[in-house]
């Protein structure tokens, strides 16, 4: 059986001495020290300024860097935490306002006020965004035929919004009047009153329709009378032209 010395023969003493002589000792190595100052070799007596040393005697400094210790880790973690909490740069107008926190709401009134502020901020942001979009489109379409179309569409949208607002206002007013009437006179009285209102509305509608029919009939009569007058005028002008032609023919004869 092969022994360990047979597998791994020991080094000879002269080879071991050569290896030991070639291996540098730890005290001979220039290990970095935990300091940020410049380290000078040991052959200089004092760390003089480079301006007072000759170019041949100027030592070569070695830069050493301080590694973070356990005491420095909280500072690093705090910086990372602050960096993560820093909000990103917002380009333009944000359409959403900060939502009120539940911890800040102390009562129902405060909650309603916070919700109202949140909605108002949202509405203002959306209006500003829409105004900026319209301004940008106007700038892009300035001096072209598209500007006319944009203005027409804006006028149409404004008219539609006005009509919609009028209809909503009239509906709210009718609802408020109905609620007040029911609260004062009761539901049965409101039913009778609504029937009377519907009857009056039907009468007004019938009167308006009859007036419209009369106006249409008058307009048709006026159109027929204008057409007859135009035909008469055309006939008179045709007769005069034929008489002139006939007189010219007699002169030629």
Automatic annotation (TrEMBL):
<protein>
    <submittedName>
        <fullName>Uncharacterized protein</fullName>
    </submittedName>
</protein>
<feature type="compositionally biased region" description="Polar residues">
    <location>
        <begin position="36"/>
        <end position="46"/>
    </location>
</feature>
<feature type="region of interest" description="Disordered">
    <location>
        <begin position="23"/>
        <end position="68"/>
    </location>
</feature>
<feature type="region of interest" description="Disordered">
    <location>
        <begin position="232"/>
        <end position="253"/>
    </location>
</feature>
